[in-house]
Target: Heme ABC transporter ATP-binding protein
Amino acid sequence: MITAENITYSIGSHRILANICATFNPGRVTAILGPNGAGKSTFLKCLTGALKPDEGSVTVDGRDLHQYSLTELSRRRAVLSQANPISFPFTAHEIVVMGRNPYSLEKTTASNAEIADEALALVDAWHLRDRAFPTLSGGEQQRVQFARVISQIWEQEGASLFLDEPTSALDLKHQHQLLELVQILSTEKNLTVVIVMHDLNLAYYSTDHCYFIKDGGIQGGEDSKDLIKADIISEIFDLPKEYAAMRFGGQFAD
Ligand SMILES: Nc1ncnc2c1ncn2[C@@H]1O[C@H](COP(=O)(O)OP(=O)(O)OP(=O)(O)O)[C@@H](O)[C@H]1O
Model:
């Protein structure tokens, strides 16, 4: 279980997160939703240890995140960031094998290569394995990067997966495939999955719980299907009630 307790984070005089509390459970997929610039990615970085909050703490299975060594962290959690710029012509397969770096001293290169191949197949990208990564389309690159992060925690039951807008470049079919795979991995490997996303339809159908971040604060944490409703969406995104009802009223009605 991952717990954020009273997280506060500022850049200069700009307070981005204020007293954020949230809990993320193994075997569950949780969405982080909210307007542009609200602090979703910043919160995700606090959860992964990339940023250290000014106040408050993040605990992973009861232990402060910053007490874990980098090696321990690299085996307990994998992170897919919003941007992963790579200009060197590594092949797609080489990119995915990089996810296996935390195990490079333990496993033979062959088995890491096999895991990378399996991960590529799972994201429908095995046929791209020998292509130079920079020549791939945006959606192909996103799938290869997702294969890299799942290969990083391949054999780690109870690990965590943090995804920042993982479907932003994907077509409808690959959005569905990726989020279905996330659900399966979460259940079968007891993963704690946290996804920052903008697509409320996907969040409704593909996540168990959701939080909303707005103006540095957080609300929610209950079932996505109970929270992604017209009145709440209207308030969080400052949308006219009629528009929210048209977009999220009938479609998501009980
Ligand atoms: N390094 C930085 N320097 C200055 N401001 C920053 C920095 N990083 C983030 N911010 C600001 O912090 C706020 C929160 O940014 P963050 O990326 O967490 O938002 P977000 O909710 O993920 O947004 P989006 O939905 O647009 O991706 C924004 O106003 C952003 O401009």
